[in-house]
């Protein structure tokens, strides 16, 4: 496994709808694969507001030539005067969706929220969006429901090769590279007079996904402000990536950075899987500094962010040990999960774009052994071989009532506690470890441990803390103090407090079965 890459950042509007798609496959991104870059920056305007809350519910293109950006120089990201912003996240299969309103007039596009990458990209095309080898996704109705058409936006134009965003997307150490590749002469480079567009870029993902497109700029309309020259990827064709992505990493291209929150932070509270595709409730996503006030952070367990030169824009934390049940002795983890080697490999990536938590061996095997010694239910080995999870059990379910089973304390599995650096302990909610793989039948239900083995732990992160294990947990990214906080809570209650639930009773009624 590897970390999510910054992909083409398409049109981000800030009404983030996050909804969990319960896919069995983790999605993680690597660094972008592209050519070169150039130097320059961006600018955006801001308007005062108390905060921003977002609701979270993942053909050829012709664009106008770049507007004059030759006098742009790399600047610090815009510092916004907005205290915070809130939007809903819509829960869907394999992730949480945020809806972006981009262009003039605005076009709405839903994309995955991804803390594992920077670039935001959207499916783009005047006629169609082509996803190569996406049959599995299409069969599961996991595909883009909308695309962005730059020809239908009067404010859309291609980013200049002299833009700092072009330098960033091409991962270049030389600011002249993108314009040189675009065909600018040395004289034009020295005089900063080249107006050629940013060259096409390619972006790869850890699960083999690939996107290629052009860097585009357009107005992004949010609830409390507009970003007039928002930079994103306009993608007409991908491999194994059916839905666009909104990057929430720490780099220049990320959504928080372009909104002016890169020195502040954001938080989310993911609803459980049973709310997948429920139109009546959304997970809250909050951007801004008001979420970091003392009275809101006192109850959180904070662990420091770890910085690696290999993936400087990703969020890494250090894992010290894992406790199963009431065991006094915690299972110690390898040093690679809390520090980096000389090449920058190691650490635990926290990633909303990866569904399940991944742990390296021998730690993963030790966790399985410890759980097996504690759990007395019969193993469901047939289910294990069929769906690929390593530890499944057949659990009694009287009257085939899964809701009553979830509320029965005698039917609980052993608790799993993650101990992070700085004595930050997170006891996973019961629903975040073992999960029902189908509807109850004949008075029983099969539940599987939704963890994965980290098979490629020698390169990139040593482990990944996925979005499934972040359900019913408030996760706060304090970017100013470079720390990440955790607090177990009922995310339905949190959604209701932000006005993101139509009916409170949905908590009892909603189920994937």
UniProtKB/TrEMBL annotation:
Pfam families on file: TAXi_C, TAXi_N
Keyword Transport found: no
GO biological process: proteolysis
InterPro entries for the chain: Aspartic_peptidase_A1, Aspartic_peptidase_AS, Pepsin-like_plant, PEPTIDASE_A1, Peptidase_aspartic_dom_sf, Plant_Aspart_Prot_A1, TAXi_C, TAXi_N
CDD domains cross-referenced by the UniProt entry: pepsin_A_like_plant
Gene Ontology cellular-component terms listed: extracellular region
Family per record: Belongs to the peptidase A1 family.
Designated name of the protein: Peptidase A1 domain-containing protein
Organism per entry: Brassica oleracea var. oleracea
